[in-house]
Design brief:
- The chain has helices spanning 70-73, 86-103, and strands at 8-17, 20-22, 25-27, 31-48, 53-60, 65-69, 77-81.
- By secondary structure, the protein is α+β, with helices and mostly antiparallel strands.
- It has a domain at 8-17 and 32-102.
- The strands form 2 sheets. A 5-stranded antiparallel β-sheet has the order 6-5-4-1-7. The chain has a two-stranded antiparallel ribbon with strand order 2-3.
- A hairpin with a 2-residue loop joins strand 2 (20-22) and strand 3 (25-27).
């Protein structure tokens, strides 16, 4: 399943109470209190190549913009309704991925002055 811009998604997000998360460590013991249902249209999607994480920006029915990681969206998905141009977007995405894989070894390395430090 591919979720792309323009798709309608409905998902249940787990909700926890108690505990806190500070400097990469969880303190206390959060407890599961239920799920909250979200519904909206995907406005943006991105894939961080360095982190390997898919992120979606979803415009909820109440007008708020919510960012959600793919690792949290896909397993909790209740319904996915493809948008009008879903097939074209999936095909374009596949083409971009294939092109990136083909050219991955052909690019010359960055000059030293342009490399991140």
């Amino acid at each position: 399943m591919n979720i792309v811009v323009g798709d309608k998604v409905i998902w249940d997000a787990p909700q926890f109470k108690g505990g806190s998360f500070l400097r990469g460590r969880s303190t206390g013991k959060p407890r599961f209190v239920g799920t909250k249902r979200f519904e909206g249209l995907v406005e943006r999607e991105s894939y961080g190549t360095t982190t390997g994480q898919h992120t979606f920006s979803v415009r909820l029915v109440d007008g708020k913009l919510k960012r959600v990681k793919g690792r949290n969206l896909y397993p909790n998905l209740v319904r996915h309704e493809p948008g009008a141009d879903h097939a074209e977007q999936v095909a374009a995405k596949t083409t971009r991925i294939e092109l990136a894989e083909q050219t991955a070894g052909t690019l010359s390395p960055l000059p030293a002055r342009l490399r991140p430090t």
